[in-house]
Every structure is written in C-alpha cells, then in structure tokens.
Fold this sequence. Notes:
This protein has 7 helices and 10 strands. The protein has helices spanning 14-25, 47-57, 72-78, 83-92, 109-113, 127-136, 160-167; strands at residues 3-6, 30-34, 37-43, 66-68, 97-102, 118-122, 140-143, 173-176, 186-189, 196-199. Helix 1 (14-25) crosses helix 6.
Amino acid sequence: MANRLGVHPVSPQSRLIERAADVVRRGGLLLCPTDAGYAFVWGVDARQAEERVIRLRALDTRHPFTLLCRSVSEVGQLTRLDDQAFRLIRALAPGPVTFILPASPGLPRRLRQAKRRAVGVRVPDHPAAIALMDTVGEPLLTTSLVLPGDEDEAMPSHEVEPVAERMLRHVDLMIDAGDCPQGPTTVIDCTGDPPEVTREGFVPVHLD
Length: 208
C-alpha cells in the first residue's frame, strides 16, 4: 500500500513536500492535488512510472501527456509562444487550463526524441502542486485519473476519499491535501490562428 502524505492545503509543510519530491526523483508515481482535481504526476525521465500509467489507463504508448510548469516563463522555454499565445497564457495562468502549443528545442530530451510537434502544458494554481515542482526543480508530467469505463460514470477526482480508495494502491505516494477544486481543465489549442477551445472544463473560458 502506498504512503498517504497529509499536507496543509494552503501551506504544505516543506519537509513533507521534500519526501514527495524524493519519490519523484527516484522515478516514482504520485497522486497530487491540483486546481482541477487529483492527477497522476511523475518525473519527465521516469519511464517506468509512465508505463504504469499507460497500462492502468489502457492508453496508446504515444499518448501525449501534459507538462506541469511552474510559470509562464517556463512554458516559454519549452514551447514556441507567439504574441497571441503569450497574452492568452498570461491572462489565464496559473489556472485550470491546458494549452496545446508548438514544441520547441527546449523540451526535455526524452520528449524531443518522441518528435512531437505540439505539447500540452499548464501552470497549476494549487499550493501542493506548486511546492512539489519548486522542490523537484523542473517540470513534471501529468494526466487525469480517468480509467477505462469511466466515461459513463466518472469518479469524483476532486474528492480525496474516493480518490484514495480507488487509486492509492496504484501509486507510490499520495499527497493528501483534502478535497481540491473540481476538474477537468479547459483545453485551448494554440497551434492555429485563432486559438480554439477544444474542451470546456469545469471553469468556463471565453476567448472573445
């Protein structure tokens, strides 16, 4: 059974976040609270953790996972931002929005090797997720907790007890900050002109 690490939802204790960051550094798979529900989180180079997620969610091996970033500046290092996309991200991040952007040479090596032309990125607005990224010191990969068959009866991924009951056995550590804001994120495709909302999330976004 994985460890369940209870942290303060507003001011997560640094010593506990350091424990979680160490699990990430060792290639582990975490459950982490975000501003759009709990999510799977792992390090960019953690191939085994990613393979576990792929098996668990029954995904294609080329499924594009999202990069969690600490800031708009970090997004700019990993993607190609034109003026329009930059203004949009500055207006909406941090927040429960995933942006699809053209990839840049600044992507981590393993992601560059996948030869993806676009990548999903987001800057979360949750103290625990922010503290984890700050402590690890680099972007993290993430995906939702949607499992095969969940489309008809989705699990409430923002409620900590149902998440722990169903998912704790599948991960190495859960950062438990209690219930968190509901998901999913809104997805905005910024690879075209103009940007387009391709999925409406729990928090509506209007581009007008």
